[in-house]
Amino acid sequence: MPTPSMEDYLEKIYQLIDKKGYARATDIANALDVNPSSVTKMIQKLDKEQYVVYEKYRGLKLTSKGEKIGKKLVHRHKILEKFLHLIGVKDEESIYLEVEGIEHHLGQRSISSIELLVNFFEHNPDVKKRFKEYCYNYRDLVK
Q: What residues form the membrane-spanning segments (predicted)?
């Protein structure tokens, strides 16, 4: 099982490969705002754990194990972003930071439950509208 730090790297590597077709250490360092030497160390750990295949100076590829986890992590991130939008968080930077803060602390059961709730609201726009109205009115009451 990957550590939270490994998960951050796997998620970012998956996103970079999905977007650009490849992921280099410099791309990962820039995306995560970390030193390239830290990226190299983590890539070596991920390689040892068989999440990536790393060839020095050539870049890396996700193994099927790494791709499966990367895809799951990206999905988890999107679900949590949708949830925060749903409950009224508007600032994109806040949403990103809050998702980064909570995503490693929720188990799969909680993520699945949140996903069900998000899907419920997406498939029931009338209920979603009523919820948004309730939130708007309630916020006026507590000010």
A: none
For domain 74-138, say whether CATH 1.10.60.10 is its number. yes
The predicted model scores a pTM of 0.87
Pairing of strands 59-62, 52-55: antiparallel
pLDDT in tens, the chain (143 residues): 899 999 999 999 999 999 998 899 999 999 999 999 999 999 999 999 999 998 777 778 999 999 999 999 999 999 999 999 999 888 888 899 999 989 999 999 999 999 999 999 999 999 999 998 998 888 766 55
Please, which residues have CB within 8 angstroms of residue 104's CB and are 6 or more apart in sequence? 4, 7
Using N-to-C axis directions, what is the helix angle for 64-86 and 108-123, rounded to 10°?
A: 50
Topology classification of domain 4-68: Arc Repressor Mutant, subunit A (1.10.10)
How many DSSP H helices and E strands does the chain contain? 7, 2
Closest to 9 (Cα-Cα) out of 41, 42, 35: 42
